[in-house]
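Quick one, tokens below:
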């Protein structure tokens, strides 16, 4: 059975624009998924990237245009200047890690719920009430927001090291069990083709 390691940040607009299409592709091919939330700004610093607010104005302008185009293309509403961005991604990331360990809900819905909270709903995913509500909406016990914080912190740090070691430099980033790497929500169709045996 195929497997996908999914590296992402709960602050990434491009991970938001991925929606749950990767989950659909995985289901189509019977592939399992391991969700690996990480600290994207630290990843940028370690792999030659630059934080969005520190990029040259021409890159910032292109990014704004591209995000607007992609959101319209995909039918996903997106606020280019969300009220709570950037914010602390750790609480939402720890909740995803805890939910993945506990099981019982829809992880794809949980991840997309946090991303939509930032980019479409102007909610602060660092706040406990937002984390709990998002967990509950995806079918998980809201109390997971309180449990496994130490394990969550350790896994969150380990995900970053794993990402650097395996060639991840942005988000969303998908790696198959055959070490095929796909960067960006606009490469999900290529991931589908690869799992189909097209290349």
């Amino acid at each position: 059975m195929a497997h996908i390691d999914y590296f992402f940040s709960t602050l990434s607009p491009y991970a938001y624009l991925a929606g749950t299409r990767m989950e659909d592709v995985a289901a189509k091919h019977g592939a399992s998924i391991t969700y690996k939330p990480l600290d994207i700004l630290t990843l940028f610093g370690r792999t030659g990237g630059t934080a969005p607010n520190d990029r040259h104005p021409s890159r910032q302008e292109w990014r704004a245009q591209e995000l607007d185009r992609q959101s319209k293309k995909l039918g996903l509403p997106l606020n280019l200047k969300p009220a709570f961005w950037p914010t602390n991604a750790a609480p939402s990331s720890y909740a995803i890690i805890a939910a993945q360990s506990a099981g019982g809900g829809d992880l794809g819905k949980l991840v997309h719920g946090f991303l939509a909270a930032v980019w479409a709903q102007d909610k602060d995913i660092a706040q406990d009430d937002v984390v709990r509500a998002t967990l509950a909406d995806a079918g998980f016990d809201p109390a997971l927001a309180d449990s496994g914080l130490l394990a969550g912190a350790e896994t969150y740090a380990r995900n970053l090291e794993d990402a650097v070691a395996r060639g991840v430099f942005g988000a969303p980033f998908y790696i198959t069990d055959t070490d095929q790497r796909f960067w960006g929500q606009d490469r999900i169709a290529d991931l589908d083709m690869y799992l189909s045996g097209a290349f």
